[in-house]
């Protein structure tokens, strides 16, 4: 393995990559133990309690392996000779040794099972940031450094399996103040969730408090609880909510200091330092006993690439295409658009688009200036000198500006204004000027949602713009207008650009699958769900989306299959697919795939008997413990905050194979880190489902990376491919729109089926 000398002066520029992983080495090859038949979870818990001090218990399927910790301990179950080299056994043995190691260290062990979590209760970041303040008011509130430890066996390509200990630093909020004391301090807890005194049970959400009793409206077992025997749910937003009430005008200063203290724990360099610190401590502790005759030792932090046996790969960014013939290409989307114009310039029919602009009267002058700059551009600017009309090869824009008095009922005023405007006229796009504060309003109290629903019912896509954005600093206005113009053109049905692609078969479709639960409660049964499908060609051309019918959760799988059939039938007709054509379907999902969903897709594919179909099912997730560092990365300059950001954060497009069917991919580099205090970005874990009939993971991963450059919402590369990000946008908006009393989603399957209404 490559040894990384922590603290060594850097004298070269190439990436010095490492994983948040410490190499685990086993001394011993074989062990003796026993095997039992798994009967039930309750019986398993009973066995753990009985043998916790003397044996390692590991369940695998219907079997339970019992391994004595010391020589002379009894054999539990049928005697069995076992190999330490077995992945699951290595995991169980190392995990048990780690738990026993931290049980004797000055940490509070919050969770013994893997991932093991320990908390450093000697440091309360809140108390560190409130020196000089009356801290008695804050007693019971804490933010502690915490550390999760995962044992994994990696399977790098062309290399023997490697057992590692992953170290994942974080912060853990804690609230140990009963509800009655918070109420006495003047804090309104309506709408907040509460937990039992031991913190193990989420009780419900408070809707009212009367006579020392909290009435709950989202609960499992009880609909009320005494306010002296429950705690506020220990989430970071709840801690900050209470701090704001308790420290008053001191909150901005304290909040900034907390951000800085948290960054010293969760920033990339801080995490890198913590991994090396634990590696040094574990090495100093010497070999840890696993079982009778078997020990583990800790090696180096796992280096990547270079001379390391664990190799990395680098994904190539795509070229962008600006003409159907493919003869106009550029390696940057914005520069290519300025040079060549949009991909569909020759056949985009709305050369003088009709655009409705709706704004409160008090913003009229500012909006008119914004509209003129949108159409004509900002002279001598780097990004938007041409303006919307010339950049997208339009002839003109026919803009109708509607102003109105907001009055006291914002939603009604907005709705009346747009309905009056569209009563006798049609429009290709509507621009709605709103206030930033509207995003905090829900359902029919939110003017933007009410307006969007009203216009979408007429088949008109909507683009919102906050008045605070229109008033933003002059130096950033060219970027605002540039991305705004891109979204507008796309929502009107335009194709700004595609990516160069040469699919090796007749038809290749990339399909994003998602869903949204239509409920606000966390504890109730999942009742209604809408499935979401977005479909793209291999060159990234957006073909259509489909929001399935709202159905009961039990009917979701059948509705998913019906939705896929509907989409494929339409695309097949549109592109004149012939019988026995070769078709490849690549599915992207952002959450672990349920077996029922995988079976539904497999059943759907099997039903396509007219074509020769193969498919791949990819899960893309941030829910994993891996972090990649670059010790040679000094960071990128942040022009807004006048400092560097993203130190020790590796660049975009690095791939690391962690298993036969999975790899890590970096999609957030130093330039994409939002602020200098942004935590360490998490790479995306790409996993190929075992049921896939097309299994070239390198090809599929390169495709995922290329699709992160394809958003028509911004010229900046995304942190997820558009198959996922578009589905998430649709899901978020559908969840919000579904709370409106008269919302009708049918237009999403008719008038707006091929529109990018969600951008």
How is this fold's topology laid out?
Layout: E1 17-27, E2 30-37, H1 41-51, E3 55-60, E4 63-68, E5 78-83, H2 87-103, E6 108-111, E7 116-119, H3 125-129, E8 141-154, E9 162-175, H4 179-184, E10 193-196, E11 202-210, E12 213-219, E13 224-226, E14 230-232, H5 236-247, H6 251-266, H7 268-284, E15 288-291, E16 294-304, E17 312-314, E18 320-321, E19 329-330, H8 333-340, E20 354-360, H9 364-376, H10 387-391, E21 398-404, H11 410-422, E22 429-434, H12 447-456, E23 462-466, H13 467-470, H14 477-491, E24 498-499, E25 507-517, E26 528-537, E27 542-547, E28 551-552, H15 556-574, E29 582-589, H16 595-606, E30 612-621, E31 628-630, E32 636-638, E33 643-645, E34 654-659, E35 662-665, E36 684-688, H17 697-707, H18 722-737
Parallel strand pairs: 20-21, 20-22, 22-23, 25-29, 29-30
Antiparallel strand pairs: 1-9, 1-16, 1-31, 2-4, 2-5, 3-4, 6-7, 7-8, 8-9, 10-11, 10-14, 11-12, 12-13, 15-16, 17-34, 18-19, 18-24, 25-26, 26-27, 26-28, 30-36, 32-33, 34-35, 35-36
